[in-house]
Amino acid sequence: MKKINIGLLGLGQIGSGLYEILKAKKSLFERQLGVSFELKRIAEKYPNARRKVHPPPSLMTKDAFAVVRDPAIDVIVELIGGTTVARELIKESLKHGKHVVTANKALLAEYGDEIFELAHRKKRWLCFEASVGGGIPCIKALREGLAANRIDSVHAIINGTTNYILTQMTIQGTSFADALTGAQQQGYAEANPSLDIHGVDAAHKLAILARFAFGGKVKFKDIYCEGITAVSSDDIAFAKEFGYTIKLLAIAKKTGDGMEARVQPTLLPNSHILANVNGSFNAILMHGDEVGDVLFYGRGAGPHPTASAIVADLVDIAKAGAQGPAEDHFMVRALGKTIPVKSISSILSRYYLRFYVIDKPSVLAGISKILGKYQISISDVIQRERSAGRAVPLILLTHGAHEKDLRAAVHEIDRLPYIKGKTQVIRIEGA
Ligand SMILES: NC(=O)c1ccc[n+]([C@@H]2O[C@H](COP(=O)([O-])OP(=O)(O)OC[C@H]3O[C@@H](n4cnc5c(N)ncnc54)[C@H](OP(=O)(O)O)[C@@H]3O)[C@@H](O)[C@H]2O)c1
């Protein structure tokens, strides 16, 4: 029987979920996997605070650094979150010869070079399945199941909060504000949902996915990031009329000279497989040169789904042996040359444009003239019924155009006297 001594840092939502699973399934893991997971120490800021799990007080400590330096511990599971103390704790763990399992996407996206390099130098396992897609084993798939492939694109719904909000807006017709309140009441959104609704959480996960899918360093700050706060109920309704669904997509595409990497609200044709991923579910669609499309679907957050991925990492470490990797080629590849991210202004896309216009003859002609000047052609139009003297929506879908040209055209159109308010621009994929 292999025995793995674990030091757990953080007994919050995910830490508690992990504690429950390790306790409830201890004998199952021993029987089925031949591994005995021993939770040796748990560090928590307030060890005596009321919480839903009740470990023996003898396991609890306030001092996370004492846990990472404890010679009796083989693996540190970091579930504190954030990019300050957690960063120091992970580095200290690796320096003390511990393997590390973490769910901390913000840390790995922003300081991955430093942390992955240190793990590689120290020949320790640094496992992070739970950092992307919660319980969905997408990192393992990249490491093993898709090993024969060069991955050329990733299209992913990897933030459950925003997917829940957009689903409520689409299916129930709820406003953004009400859908956000609902997400908070259901426990899908934090009291401060800023990282989710502004797309930053999805961009963190995309930085990790792109790094391991394409093999190379990824500068997080180069990922274009646009959240869902500007998506209105009108946009969702108009998209529906054209046969599209709006989703917050994280997209990474390999190009000849680097990659595109962006998080953005996106119009997807209703027939697209990701258009039907609803509620708080996540899905990751990858395209490999040998396998074609592969879809991973499941719970992207929550205590038990996330802890499920952490246990999978612990099992991998147990199976690989506590001595650590001689050479972890998956990691070496991800520590390769930085993959340049193309500027958003140079991408080619189709677009949804929503104008509010004072309805009078020749409005559409005026707008199409400017679009034509920038080589942008219109594929579809919806113009609302007349309403004398009042602004009415005018919606256009374009054929493929360069973002730089599209932005220049919209800038010019916005100065026309009959255009009211800010023009909405949403990119279209998969059509
Ligand atoms: N929640 C999810 O569904 C989910 C999904 C995937 C990944 N993750 C990632 O998993 C990690 C944990 O998330 P979570 O939702 O479990 O967060 P959480 O509920 O806030 O838990 C973090 C815990 O760590 C404690 N803590 C903070 N600083 C500490 C320190 N210096 N020493 C010891 N304990 C400390 C916190 O105590 P206080 O509360 O007293 O500060 C809290 O109990 C994060 O990196 C997150 O991004 C979460």
List its salient traits.
binds NADP nicotinamide-adenine-dinucleotide phosphate, 431 residues, six-stranded parallel β-sheet, alpha/beta, Alpha-Beta Plaits, 3 domains, Dihydrodipicolinate Reductase, domain 2
Secondary structure elements and their pairing?
Elements lengths: L1 E8 L3 H12 L1 H8 L1 E9 L16 E2 L2 H5 L6 E4 L6 H11 L3 E4 L2 H18 L3 E2 L10 H8 L5 E7 L2 H13 L3 H10 L8 H4 L2 H16 L8 E2 L7 H10 L1 E12 L2 E12 L11 E8 L3 E8 L3 H18 L8 H6 L13 E11 L4 H11 L4 E6 L7 E8 L2 E2 H11 L5 E10 L3
Parallel strand pairs: 1-2, 1-4, 2-3, 4-5, 5-6, 8-10, 10-17
Antiparallel strand pairs: 7-9, 7-11, 9-10, 11-12, 13-15, 13-16, 13-17, 14-15
Helix pairs in contact: 1-12, 4-5, 5-10, 7-8, 14-15
The protein binds NADP nicotinamide-adenine-dinucleotide phosphate (NAP).
The site of NADP nicotinamide-adenine-dinucleotide phosphate has 24 residues, from helix 1.
